[in-house]
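Regression test attached.
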Amino acid sequence: MARVVVRNFAVSLDGFGAGPDQNLDNPIGAGGDRLHTWIFETRFGRQMIGGDGGSVGLDNDLLEQGDQGIGATIMGRNMFGPIRGDWPDEAWRGWWGDNPPYHHPVFVLTHHPRQPIEMQGGTTFYFVADGIQSALDQAVNAAQGGDVRIGGGISTIQQYLRAGLIDELGLAIVPILLGSGERLLESARIGSPNYELAGLASSDRVAHIRLQRV
Amino acid sequence: MARVVVRNFAVSLDGFGAGPDQNLDNPIGAGGDRLHTWIFETRFGRQMIGGDGGSVGLDNDLLEQGDQGIGATIMGRNMFGPIRGDWPDEAWRGWWGDNPPYHHPVFVLTHHPRQPIEMQGGTTFYFVADGIQSALDQAVNAAQGGDVRIGGGISTIQQYLRAGLIDELGLAIVPILLGSGERLLESARIGSPNYELAGLASSDRVAHIRLQRV
């Protein structure tokens, strides 16, 4: 059985997974880039953007492990790009250049259907307009026995949490205060899911908490 | 100069420092006792309630260090007891028995003045009805060169945060979801205080994060 997992999803100490005022210049909202600084300080994070160097250790290990065994990814349209409403043309192909760091099928939740986009390196973006369960069914099928990762953003993770579909929730608590933005663990959005601790460890900059569904 | 510190203050993964529906039977609200389970599993926590045994290690070390150098504590009236409004008599003397685990002067914020209560073991409760700055001034004076600890609860810590008076904020992130209750790091209550990371470490059950004012 494919598991449905969230891995290394960064939230601030005050609970925000994105800052306020998301736009093309600030895809994670004002100050939201500070949630991801730790990633690009690791070897894994630098390789992801075509760089080299970077730290090894716990943060790097967990980022590497976060990719292991994943056969498909699901993301919200706002994570795929800044365009809202109908697609004006086929030009936007994601934030990640010609060779995105997924290397497997990626299912994008949207209300606006679009033809799949085959990228370099094994990533194909599929657009799903008939809901989160359909996206999950398609992702499980495409994963061919691998697990399905819910990549984000906040609203997408919340919808799957609320539906009781996430088996493992891995968060990276970044000890900064954003003050406002999108809060992940908001009971009005996620209901009352029942999780227990499956793993806890910290580097000198991030606390990694992994919950599993009871 | 006395420093003003919060130490080992427990909050849930979803940010709550107390559950909903606080009352005499549930002084930390429904489910709120789960925030403190880890404390009573340590040697320090057991000694605090007159027991023995308990774990040593990071959680125990940080609890012991949390008490070091503290010359006075400030707490809100709701942390001192469940009585609201005027004091009906002098009977309520706190939750902690005849020998409270403070062993120094404790300043209780209240709108209802009352004579000091001298307990066994060095703890004296003073009741301060003229505001948080007055309580801090009295506590700094009473601490005789020691630091002043803001003990809680949520509202009291928030008032001192908002006033920019807390030098060090030490939180214990307990990886449970309470769903509702009193949220500590709520910008509407604390403003936009400017802190940086001063320490991060985790046991297998609690992530300890220490911030200091920039």
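Expected vs. actual: identical. Residues 1-9+70-87+94-163+174-190 of chain B form a domain with the Dihydrofolate Reductase, subunit A fold (CATH 3.40.430.10).
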